[in-house]
Amino acid sequence: MLAYERESRSPWNIFARSIAQEVAFRVLAIAHRGASGYAPENTFAAFRRAVAQGVSFIETDLQLTRDAHLVAIHDDTVDRTTGGHGAVQHMTLAEIRRLDAGAWFASEFIGERIPTLEEILVFSKKNDVVFYLELKPNGFWGGEHALISALRESGEIPRVVVISFDPVILSSLRNIDPTLMVGLLFDGKIENPFQKAVEIGARQLAVRGDLVTPNLLHEARKRDLQVVCWTVNSPAHMRLLASGGVDGIMSDYPDLLLTSLKK
Question: I need a surface site. Which of 17, 87, 111, 194 has the fewest CB within 10 A?
């Protein structure tokens, strides 16, 4: 029996059990930044495409603006994925909202905007989607309270998994709200990630796909940690990881991922 299934019936534990039950029957298919192979990453165009392709889990990145709003963008700056320039943490929400986040990808996406966390949570509820919210360490000081406040106001705490490379951020979030489900991102740079994940109360270890080994899975299982991996776009690699026993896979191409998991 998984640790999730032994715990009391709080909303967080119900969500944790639902994840465990999903894992028991299939590998979780998670759309990385939405269906970002087909639409501009971290936009509603990518999120809608992911839902249309059949996934129930979407990963997106959150950065904090100068006026303490959380918005969905991966990079520290807006340069790569918009027509603007500058660091997200130095811009206000109003400035962020004026940027075009779709034209860089293809002309059909001109006019796409950078979503706010509040808008994402509305989308999550409307489409019955669980979001993996990745918090970027740079410029996130003070963002913990903004995140918890938005999640509580929306009632969506039981429907998100918060992930980060920074265990301090995750620990701070869990201190504010112990019901929050968190996962520690691992790219090979954290010493003893299993112990660190357990120390901060993480339920998942989110591992770079090429670092997954039978030993890593064994060590995670000993600690009741689920293992999800990122970012896997090769069908052969998807099938290898699934057969090896990972609990979830993130991909820019959720349709290919779903097809590969059926084989």
Answer: 111
Beta bridge partners of 164: 184
The two structure tokens encoding residue 132: 């993996």
Q: What is the DSSP letter of 136?
A: P
User: Which residues pair with residue 204 across a beta bridge?
Assistant: 183, 226
Q: Does the active-site annotation cover 69?
A: no
Among the listed residues 32, 85, 90, 237, the single catalytic one is 32
Pick the CATH number of 3-77+115-262 from 3.20.20.190, 2.30.130.10, 3.40.640.10, 2.60.40.1190: 3.20.20.190
The pTM of this model reads 0.91
Domain parsing of the chain, residue ranges: 3-77+115-262
User: Given pLDDT bands bounded at 50, 70 and 90, which one contains residue 17?
Assistant: very low
Contact 161, 174 (CB under 8 A): no
Catalytic residue among 74, 85, 90, 237: 74
Give every CB contact of residue 77 below 8 A, 6+ residues apart in sequence: 85, 86, 87, 88
pLDDT in tens, 202-226: 999 999 999 999 999 999 999 999 9
Residues with Cβ within 8 Å of 70's Cβ and at least 6 positions away in sequence, in order, are: 62, 63, 64, 116, 117, 143, 146, 147, 150
